[in-house]
Amino acid sequence: MIELRTCISKYETMSIRKQCELLDLAPSSYYHKGKGESYDNLQIMRLMDEEFLEHPTHGVFQMQDFLRASGLVVNHKRVRPLLRKMNIMAIYPQKNLSKLGQAKYIHPYLLRNLEISRPNHVWAIDITYIPMAQGFMYLTAIIDVHSRYVVGWGLFNDLRAENCLMVLKDAIRQNGKPEIINSDQGSQFTCPLWVEYLQAEEIKISMDGKGRALDNIFIERFWRTVKRDYVYINPPENGEELYAGLKTFFNYYNEKKTHQGINRMIPAQLYKKTA
Distances in Å between the alpha carbon of 173 and those of 21, 89, 222, 223, 239? Predict the structure, then answer.
């Protein structure tokens, strides 16, 4: 069977996006070239990624202390830009948090005390840093909160809002629209491109509150599963290997892995049973 991504050429006059559309392929699946970084920085970033997964309230100085305890003396002026590259922000109230995006596009959190009882009622979207032997990439994923089913995902080497919208549109094309979509207040989600699209599609917008570590707990737990069960034990060499590995892992996660949070059911069973 031919891998459709190999049919796409960056030398064609037709855009990558248009080629993907003609092949009925998610554009996000094409962009698999990792973002480069020095070997020393990659080692530091890998350690900080694992530490942040366990302690999401750690800021720059706590990370510096952690690295020192791990035998690495690293100046905080080096830690800070690396955390920014990793799209990591400590989970606690901060001054001027709205500067991450445009304040007028920030929306309230709609999930508090909400009974989520059906597929496509609420989707959750987030971005996480994925380390590789040769650089790193950003993984954007969307899960259906009711079933924990992964409805869409994509790998990118930058943090543009267009990437998140690309993953969302592809998820909607395959699964239909959610009633509500929840995200953090990152700049990708507090910009006109994201907000105006959701408003046009009549999808309700929910955003985590400032410093609310538990508001998007479903996808935070999902990241732990992805990294502990795949990324950390099968560190990919490059973007191609990462894409192929994640594709296999998400198929396993959706179709075979039981989930304690949904009474040990398989996500696909619950999602497709009641969708």
Answer: 11, 31, 23, 24, 25
CA distance 113 to 56: 24
pLDDT digits (tens, 9 = 90+) for 106-165: 999 999 999 999 999 999 999 999 988 878 899 999 999 999 999 999 999 899 999 999
- Per-state percent for the chain, helix, strand, coil, to nearest 5: 45, 15, 40
Write out the two tokens for 229: 């069960």
Q: How far apart are CA 243 and CA 190, in angstroms?
A: 28
Of 34, 203, 231, 29, residue with least CA distance to 124: 203
- Helix (H) / strand (E) element for 143: namely strand 135-144
pTM, two decimal places:
0.75
Residue ranges and CATH numbers for the domains of the chain are 100-274 (3.30.420.10)
Torsion of CA 228, 62, 211, 48, to 10 degrees: -30
Provide the pairing of β-strand 135-144 with 122-132: antiparallel
User: For residue 31, what are its two tokens?
Assistant: 């962009």
- Looking up tokens 């990462």 gives 242
Phi, psi of 203 (to 5 degrees): -100, 125
- DSSP lists the bridge partners of residue 128 as 139
Cβ atoms 264, 275 nearer than 8 A = no
Query: 3-class DSSP state for residue 6?
Result: helix
Cα–Cα distance for residue pair 160/158, rounded to 1 Å = 6
